[in-house]
Amino acid sequence: MQSSLSLSLSPHTSLTIPRPNQSSFATSAKPINLRFCGLRREALGDFSPLLTRRVHLNSITARRRSAANLVVSASLSGGNGSPPKSFDYDLLIIGAGVGGHGAALHAVEKGLKTGIIEGDVVGGTCVNRGCVPSKALLAVSGRMRELQSEHHLKALGLQVSAAGYDRQGVADHANNLASKIRNNLTNSMKAIGVEILTGVGTILGPQKVKVGSDKVVTAQNIIIATGSVPFVPKGIEVDGKTVITSDHALKLESVPDWIAIVGSGYIGLEFSDVYTALGSEVTFIEALGQLMPGFDPEIGKLAQRVLINPRKIDYHTGVFATKITPAKDGKPVIIELIDAKTKEPKDTLEVDAALIATGRAPFTQGLGLENVNVATQRGFVPVDERMRVIDANGNLVPHLFCIGDANGKMMLAHAASAQGISVVEQVTGRDHVLNHLSIPAACFTHPEISMVGLTEPQAREKAEKEGFEVSIAKTSFKANTKALAENEGEGLAKLIYRPDNGEILGVHIFGLHAADLIHEASNAIALGTRIQDIKLAVHAHPTLSEVLDELFKSAKVKAQVASPVSEPVAV
Amino acid sequence: MAHLLNTSFIPSSSSPTLRPRNPTILIQTRRPPTRIVAKIREIFMPALSSTMTEGKIVSWMKSEGDKLSKGESVVVVESDKADMDVETFYDGYLAAIMVEEGGVAPVGSAIALLAESQAEIADAKSKAASSSEAETTNSAAESVGPTVVAAVAVAPPQVKEAASLSLSLSTHPASEGGKRVVASPYAKKLAKELKVELGRVVGSGPSGRVVAKDVEAAAAAVSVGPTAAEAASVAAKSVGIELGTVVPFTTMQGAVSRNMVESLAVPTFRVGYTFTTDALDALYKKIKSKGVTMTALLAKATALALAKHPVVNSSCRDGKSFTYNSSINIAVAVAMDGGLITPVLQDADKVDIYSLSRKWKELVDKARAKQLQPQEYNTGTFTLSNLGMFGVDRFDAILPPGTGAIMAVGASQPTVVATKDGRIGMKNQMQVNVTADHRVIYGADLASFLQTLANIIEDPKDLTF
Question: I want to staple A125 with a disulfide (CB 3.0 to 4.6 A). Which of A81, A130, A435, B307 is the partner?
């Protein structure tokens, strides 16, 4: 219950304070297209204490009644000029993934009558085929790594006999976690009165949606949150056994001796961590000139040194896999590679399996977008910075929004949820623009990688354009007591900031529990906290959070506007 | 910054954001003073912090032959505080890497050579080869070096005619008639590490793919490279020795070899003595249950004798003077996989026999785990070597360079002796043979030392105080 309360309340409290600098941020910044599924806080506990829930429900219904007026006025100010009609729902969400779920909870909180349509299973990619089951596999791989690292254990004075694993047991753990989270998610929506409509949702016209084959419902506002599916480039034949996507890999039906992973982004990297811990050897195939192209170059370099080079991994960069044939008739999986620039054939690989991790494609087909005159761009639904859908003529479609992977702004589960909450804020009368630069991202390898804001090259480019200076501060995990106590001193935290005013532009962390450490930085960016202020905050000793403490303290902010003249000046 | 780097090569345009915290360090290069063709520069280990004395090469970001341009990261160095990327300050070619990844080099020593043009790469390579002969950059070899003694018999080297790899060269199915090699990622990594040519390895994996165990098998068969040799245990060696192969020295064997040659420069002589050990054996039997070992007893007795004969505990290094060592540190030779090491019992004359025994046990455990700290194996002032457990009754030890004397101890065994009163009796006797540096220790010195030692061993009550 504790967690469910914090779930429904915390996004609200953190987001209802619009920062004056946020809109300028979001409009000036390039949209970041991170193809990755991050973990959100949907891992809430069981809803067991009935009594508390009842109280919670009552307060919600009361608030809904009192908010009826607000809804009407919001619809009037919506600007379509049509007289208010009666709708089945105040808000209808197509797609019950993490984005839709976040929007639904916040909508109920705001007193809206909310419906959510799901054509497959509640929870979407993240819960069923993404971040959640992959975290279960990574938890296993992390423990395997610890138990296999004889050198590390010896340094701690531990003795462990050979570690082994049962593949089915590992697979079951991932599957059980997914169903548990899925149930929690379903219950959390049912408990507060969100109506779950089963069937494929199709937009028939403005404010009108068909569910399944015959049912038609109307809604004041509609949010498209249909998410994405694994992207498979043409020429690659996926058979689900030897040539697979993350959907299949998460079921862990086999652990091949040698697996090629096409794409070295977050998904590929996390799977390489899992497979190598379970004994596979991995070959990366990356189209760009270097591995891990989405990361800050310095972090990427360090990550390669720790996560790739010492492991049973090799790689081909600057190559496309033009043709991948699944294993059959005793022949291995055959991968044909061509040079990414010259398009000349380069090599042929023969491996036991291939995992396609080349990103994700929006799942927007059959959504009926043509009925409201919207043309997708490479499948993505075009939106403005307030997630309002733009039609083929460049005009806003009234009462229609699109959040999450389907709009492609930032393909992260928690970004989708934040966008959904932002939309609910808008339709309930409070203008809100989400600052995407404050949304953290994490890759759950061992050790983890996390980041928020700009990378160093992006920051330098922006600085050049806008004419300010950029400084970099770095701290090593080697200097952190807690990290050393864990014997995990490998790691780096990097701060990119403006020395003139102390603004944080980006923070990148590679090291133990990096994914948990990033939030101090992302909150600072979201709230506009400056380095000169946050560096005075106190951190418990000895904790890993001191890595960030030291990072902020090592930054040199030049002018402190508020400070008086420090040296005597002749006047 | 400049004082940290100890170099004059810091450019005046050094970026203002470059602070000591910033792990981007410019490489220092220096021209070797004796070189006439001065187009080849040494890249040496930078001092990345004020407390740094040596650095470990984490990885080379460039390989030999790569073109380098000013400001490019070349190598990642691990200091006592952090890993740092090190950049070059010159354009050129990375001609030769002198310290491989994982190797340790003292601050200021050369770790690679930078050639100005491609033509000079070969030149630089030969220079690197000759200099690495002389100065070993691997810390393990260097620290083991000065303390290695040759008293323990080393298996005769397998020097036979140079044979090519003893592997059959059948074409394997995955290679398309030898045109290309299908090898798993780990197999490739291992092959590089163990210096095995993949084209010659027969794969046993699916469709004839070369997998890790094939490479390991190939490496074991030819014993190429120090990694393979080190990994192989003594037992495995005696079984897995491939006759007719030439085996390069491991780093430890190399260090032993150098020390042995160096020892020829010291004029040594030998004095033998026979001790009666009945009293010592009785004492040993009595206090064995308290964890006392024979090694500790012998070391203790020797130390007590040395305390009365400081000249035997002295050492001569330069041939012009000698040092009376302030403490009596007894080094004891211990045979290990592929070599030997001499853990040191420090202040053996002052420490009581029980503590000494515990210390000895700790040192042996550490030696087995290869975790001895340098001061635990290179501070000996007098060496003991005991082959008695093999039944050897007497032998001759070579003096480790830098020390004054070494004592070779044989087995204590029952011997028929004639006593002074004309009777024949049975006594346990042990022969020792001391090798000493005659520049500082003379015959009479050793003789009286041995007499003192004999008195202590034959009346050992002082050993337990």
Answer: A130
Distance CA B397, CA B10 (A): 52
Q: Are A256 and A143 in contact (CB under 8 A)?
A: no
Q: From the list A283, A350, A474, which residue is nearest B185 (CB)?
A: A283
The 10 Å CB-count burial string (b at 16+, else e) for A42-71 is bbbeebeeeeebeebeeebeeebeebeeeb
Q: Which of A116, A125, A63, A124 is closest to A89 using CA atoms?
A: A116
Residues of chain B contacting A, Cβ within 8 Å: 17, 21-23, 58-59, 76, 81-83, 85, 174, 182, 184-189, 205-207, 209, 211-212, 369
Cβ–Cβ of B206/A332 closer than 8 Å?
yes
Q: How far apart, in whole angstroms, are the C-alpha atoms of residue A47 and residue A190?
A: 11
- The two three-digit tokens of residue A326, written as one number: 């699944």
d(CA A327, CA A567): 75
> Which of A478, A480, A496 to substitute to test the interface with B, most B CBs within 10 Å?
A478
Q: CA nearest A274: which of A298, A242, A251, A300? A: A251
Task: Give the position of tokens 């085996």.
Answer: B247
Decide if B185 and A478 are in contact by the 8 Å CB cutoff: no
pLDDT in tens, chain A (571 residues): 444 433 333 444 444 444 444 444 444 444 444 444 443 444 444 444 444 444 444 444 444 444 444 444 444 443 343 434 689 999 999 999 999 999 999 999 999 999 999 999 999 999 999 999 999 999 999 999 999 888 888 889 888 877 889 999 999 999 999 999 999 999 999 999 999 999 999 999 999 999 998 899 999 999 999 999 999 999 999 999 999 999 999 999 999 999 999 999 999 999 999 999 999 999 999 999 889 888 999 999 899 999 999 999 999 999 999 999 999 888 899 999 999 999 999 899 999 999 999 999 999 999 999 999 999 999 999 999 999 999 999 999 999 999 999 999 999 999 999 999 999 999 999 999 999 999 999 999 999 999 999 999 999 999 999 999 999 999 999 989 999 999 998 999 999 999 999 999 999 999 999 999 999 999 999 999 999 999 999 999 999 999 999 999 999 998 655 444 444 555 4
CA distance A42 to A120: 18
Hey, are the CB atoms on B59 and A309 less than 8 Å from each other? Answer: yes
Name the pTM for this structure: 0.58
Measured from the Cβ of residue B164, the count of other Cβ atoms closer than 10 Å reads: 8
Say yes or no for a CB contact (<8 Å) between A312 and B185. yes
Nearest to B185 among A154, A314, A479 (CB): A314
**DSSP secondary structure letters along A248-305:** HHTT-----SEEEEE--SHHHHHHHHHHHHTT-EEEEEESSSSSSTTS-HHHHHHHII
> Chain A contacts of B216, Cβ < 8 Å?
none
Q: Is the Cβ pair A474, B211 closer than 8 Å?
A: no
Q: Does the distance separating the beta carbons of A332 and B23 come in below 8 Å? A: no
Residues from A in contact with B at Cβ < 8 Å? 154, 257-258, 281-283, 301-302, 305, 309, 312-314, 331-332, 350, 352, 471-476, 478-479, 554
**Dist CA B315 CA A361 (whole Å):** 77
Q: Which residue's entry shows tokens 């944080």?
A: A504
